[in-house]
Amino acid sequence: MPALTLRDVATHCGVSTATVSAVVNGAEWVSPATRVRVQRAVDEMGYRPNQFARGLKTQRGYAVGVIVSDLTNPFFTEVVRSLSHALHAGGRAHFLCDTDHRSDVGESSLRMLADNHVVGLVLIGDSVPGDAVRRYVRRRGHVPIVAIERDYDLEGVSTLLVDSELGAYTMVRHLLGQGHRRIALITGPSLGGGSATFGREQRLHGYQRALRDVGIDPDPGLVVEGNFRYAGGQHAMRRLLASGRIPDAVFASNDMMALGAMSVLRDAGLRIPDDIAIAGFDDIPPAALTTPGLTTMAMPMSELGRAAAQLLGERLVGSGLDVVRKVFDPQLVVRHSSGHHAGARQSA
User: What is the CATH number of domain 164-299+331-347?
Assistant: First the structure.
């Protein structure tokens, strides 16, 4: 059945399409009697304006553009889910673009959203290049932007981050407290997709600082690169095992890589945590479902999504600050994979 149009409502009421449009948009020149009659027809017939078409015609948007690095990673999925619900509660729709950690897709997605006149942008992860964001701000400085887990350090871009150095420091101190001394780290990539993620370098620094604080010099041979994905964790774990320098524990910079590393250890006949302990970062839903349960640092995924929606909402109604920078603390979640009985969450 074709969608109802302004003309359908106008024909039903015996008025012009301009009159129906005026009622729908709240114009004051329509007489009270006509307004009541048209609004009743709109309600009874179930007519809904095409907001997308309206935005193209008026050159004013209505939706929020969201660009995310990798929807196959539950961390990003949870942030987007929370953001989507918060935007909906505020009466906002959104356009969602997944870049698969590709900067070219991130840049083209930004151009597409600019052409569709979005009223705000949320950039989640690292896939939109800094130069592209800088150009967008110069052209459309009135459009509020919120970046999650990337620090663009640009005027006009609000930033929501997690203190990943503190989180990594807390995790390594936990592993040390379980008696582990040779602790390996699977980092994020130094080049390409994922390399500009705020937490990548921060987690390396936290790992190194925790070891030095107890008199252990970090061993470069125990630090291997992954790519923030399951397969990257598998590859990194195989490299550690092949090196012959078997660690007591492995701290992966996100849960997806930790889960990949666990699969390799199982295939090798090694027991977790009896032979090698494992820990991750994010606390995605599968972390609690795997066997053994994965010790991890919980990222405030829902809070990040809600905070982004709130910042945009405040900017759009003119009540918010121009730029906000907020840093959240992660929480230590202890499960069996680190060699400790599961316990309550602890603030980092």
Answer: 3.40.50.2300
